[in-house]
Amino acid sequence: THELLLNSEKLNVAGQLAAGIAHEVRNPLTAIKGFLQLMESEGEGNKSYFDIIESEMDRIELILSELLVLAKPHELKFGPIDLISLLENVKTLIDTQAVINGIRIETKYNYQNFTINSDKNQLKQVFINILKNAVEAMPQGGFISIEVKQYGCNMVKIFFKDTGFGMSPEILKRVGEPFFTTKEDGTGLGIMISKQIIENHGGTINIWSDEQGTMIEVILPIASERLH
Ligand code: ADP
Ligand code: MG
Fold first, then answer.
1. Which of 135, 181, 207 has most ligand 1 atoms within 8 Å of its beta carbon, as the pocket-test mutant?
2. How far lies 114's CA from each of 80, 83, 154, 189, in Å?
3. Which segments constitute the Histidine kinase domain (predicted)?
4. How far is the CA of 191 from the centre of ligand 1 (A)?
5. For the chain, which ranges sit under pLDDT 70?
6. Where are the alpha helices (DSSP H) in 42-109?
7. Under a CB-based contact definition with an 8 Å cutoff, are residues 127 and 94 in contact?
8. Cα angle: 141, vertex 85, 228; to 5 degrees
9. ipTM exceeding 0.85?
């Protein structure tokens, strides 16, 4: 356990560093983009070069915005969050994209209330990352199920299952490594960031996958004021 703790502390420092760098890089990037747009509107230079520069800058921005989720701990606002409402909220966000891709999202909540002490936006980001991956794993359509169950007396388990193409053992082993992606336009940051956030909440993420699909289990502590 000692080694594990050290390891996650190390990750945390790396995460803070990444967030710091992301902040620093974003300002000059915004300035460059502004000038680029100006030059483009004045009709100087080669249109296809502008297009390349712009799409590469969009990519830098996407990576930065993902890294920024690992904001410095003092910027986090932890408070009581209703887990089911948050999941419903995220489901609504993803639903349009799911429907377009022929994917149905099914929820099993058992009508229980779970209050999590959390930074709402961070937890939301985790659920979005997981559900986006599920959608991206089902180009031919399929099912996603979200199930919430109490675990012991003070934990809750959230299961995300998809019927997508799954991961080979080799891929599964590498998932969560920074920048590891099998997608042409992936960043390979979603799972790493999600793991980091859940660990910051005192929880864990476990992943199972085969050619039938993928299951991601998120375990979180229930806020103590709601214990009975
Ligand atoms: P990205 O989505 O940008 O590739 P992630 O960290 O979110 O980065 O995921 C890393 C890799 O893990 C993906 O490229 C994919 O290979 C694999 N993966 C994650 N979730 C799933 C899933 N639900 N089904 C199949 N593969 C997945
Ligand atoms: Mg992803």
1. 181
2. 10, 6, 10, 28
3. 20-224
4. 7
5. 1-13, 44, 71-74, 225-228
6. 47-68, 83-100
7. no
8. 125
9. yes
* Cβ–ligand 1 contact at 133 (below 6 Å): yes
User: In sequence order, which residues have a C-beta less than 8 Å from that of residue 29 and are 6 or more positions away?
Assistant: 57, 60, 61, 64
Check residue 19 and give its pLDDT.
76
Cα–Cα distances (Å) from 196 to 14, 123, 126, 217, in that order, read 10, 11, 10, 15
Cα separation of 152 and 213, whole Å?
27
Contact by Cβ (8 Å): 194, 204: no
Which residue type does 59 have? R
Strands 79-82 and 115-118, by their bridges, are: antiparallel
